[in-house]
Amino acid sequence: MKKAVWSGIIAAAGVLALSTSVYAQQTANGTVNVTANVNAKAKLTINGASAASISFADADPDVSATVAASPLSIAVKARTTGNGAVTLTVKASQALTSGTDTIAINALKWSSTGTNFALTGTSSSTAEVSVLSATGSGNHTGTQTYALDNSWAYATGTYTTTLTYTLTAP
User: Fold this and answer.
1) Number of domains into which the chain is organized
2) I want to staple 77 with a disulfide (CB 3.0 to 4.6 A). Which of 1, 14, 43, 136 is the partner?
3) Are 92 and 121 in contact, with CB atoms under 8 Å apart?
4) What's the Rg (C-alpha) of the chain?
């Protein structure tokens, strides 16, 4: 009789183990739509500001055929399409002028350093001259150093002009 009781208890335990429910993990999903507006932007800084100045010291033309100014630090930041053209140009307002005396603007030349910057250029008051040409968004930094041809033919005076830089990033 003992044998039958134990067999019955073991059989009941087996049925109980098989009849216990296994709970399935439940999941639920949701969605979030994300929109980010990224608009075209362009920023130009020259020597850490939106405007700067350069000046040339007087020099003996026999000693210095050109006179250099301190370099300008140029930073261009542009956000545009992947293949959008980023350009920086410069144009002089007029010849270098002191009263009625002038020095031709093409006597003002420059050289630059930095990726995508033009290596050299000659100032113009009739056309924009390319300083930088790049494709797509990014930060571009470089320096630009102006030099003025020095000549005995110049009349004495303080000569001025305004250089306008134009940054374009569609």
Assistant:
1) 1
2) 43
3) no
4) 37
